[in-house]
Write a structure and sequence with these properties.
By secondary structure, this protein is of the alpha/beta class. Helices cover 42% and strands 16% of the residues.
Length: 346
């Protein structure tokens, strides 16, 4: 029997890294969640010693040239994935009989908890859609939006890892980030990065390196940075680049350490990387995938837009090394405490 079953969206590594931060805090409280996810997120979560069930299927959005494409097809693929995931999740819930179910934008686990009357919480920083552009896509998205809005109304606890004012079943936990566990010197040494030079980190998604951002960022870096400076990349995939001052590091489990140790982060505008940059005080350039509503909203809050892809030569020297006071977010602890309270008798 698992006291806590924790569903995690496998799209990218943002949901998984957020879940790790919360899971580690729960572990400190002698609570050990079992996770349910899919794709690369399975091994990522397992690397922290958690038990993980590979049962979740969710497709990544299609991106080409930095623009999100075919939203209708993505919604349809997502729905078919959701249906197959729900069957596997139902079997898992029946077998484990959890006392609490948590879902980080993994909706089948939360839907089952509602149906079965199991204590539950849904974690999401995206309460609105807005990915569709064409007429057909907007029609499909409207139907999906109705379903999602209804789910938000029916969950007992909707936890938002951001700042805001609680209302009804919605509770704002403040940003959730993993703690930095290594010094700047140790993090750089671990990955062969120099201490005396500036490091620009292109932190890419777990869903795959975005070539549009890799090539444009590297080209701008070469024009405006010193020859001793280093351009490092983390994330899934990407074409190999043979150059003395380029380090392609692949998947780095504790990427938050590299984020904190860098002089500048360039990334698509995923919330986890943005929050980890702010938590460590590292400046960031957040270029959203065009038509990706969530990333466009995240980037806009920082004053960035897709068009800033053409301003990288200006932005890199402007922001390089302009560190801010580390925010040291405590959302992981607050969320873990809230989830633990749901296990207590009322």
């Amino acid at each position: 029997m698992a006291s806590i079953l924790y569903g995690v969206s496998p799209i990218g590594f943002g949901h998984a890294s957020r879940s790790v931060a919360i899971g580690l805090k729960m572990r400190e409280m002698s609570l050990e969640p079992e996770f349910a996810t899919g794709g690369p997120a399975v091994k990522f979560l397992e690397s922290y010693g958690f038990k993980v069930h590979d049962v979740v299927t969710e497709p990544n959005p299609t991106e080409s040239g930095g623009e999100m494409k075919m939203a209708t097809l993505w919604y349809l693929r997502y729905w078919f994935g959701y249906r197959s995931t729900s069957k596997r999740m139902r079997e898992l819930v029946t077998r484990l009989s959890p006392k609490l179910i948590v879902g980080d934008e993994e909706f089948s686990s939360v839907s089952l908890a509602i149906q079965k009357g199991i204590a539950h919480a849904m974690i999401s920083d995206e309460l609105q859609l807005g990915f569709a552009r064409g007429a057909v896509a907007k029609t499909v998205e409207a139907r999906v939006g109705e379903w999602y809005a209804d789910l938000q109304r029916r969950v007992s606890n909707l936890l938002v890892p951001s700042f805001g004012t609680d209302s009804g079943n919605i509770h704002y936990m403040t940003p959730v980030t993993r703690e930095v566990t290594k010094s700047r010197e140790a993090a750089r040494a671990e990955h062969g990065l120099p201490l005396e030079s500036s490091v620009v980190l292109l932190s890419s998604s777990g869903s795959g390196m975005k070539p549009f951002l890799l090539h444009r960022s590297l080209a701008a870096f070469r024009k405006v940075c010193e020859g001793s400076d280093v351009f490092a990349t983390t994330g899934v995939g990407g074409p190999r680049i043979e150059a003395e001052n380029v380090r392609q590091l692949g998947i780095v489990r504790d990427n938050q350490n590299l984020v904190a140790a860098s002089d500048l982060v360039i990334s698509t505008a995923g919330k986890s990387t943005i929050d980890e940059s702010a938590s460590g005080g590292t400046p960031i350039i957040a270029i959203p995938i065009k038509n990706h509503a969530e990333q466009e909203r995240n980037a806009a809050e920082l004053g960035f837009a897709f068009g800033d892809l053409d301003r990288l030569e200006e932005l890199i020297p402007k922001l390089m090394g302009k560190r801010s006071a580390p925010a040291h977010y405590t959302g992981a602890q607050r969320t873990a405490d809230y989830l633990a309270s749901l296990l207590s008798p009322r």
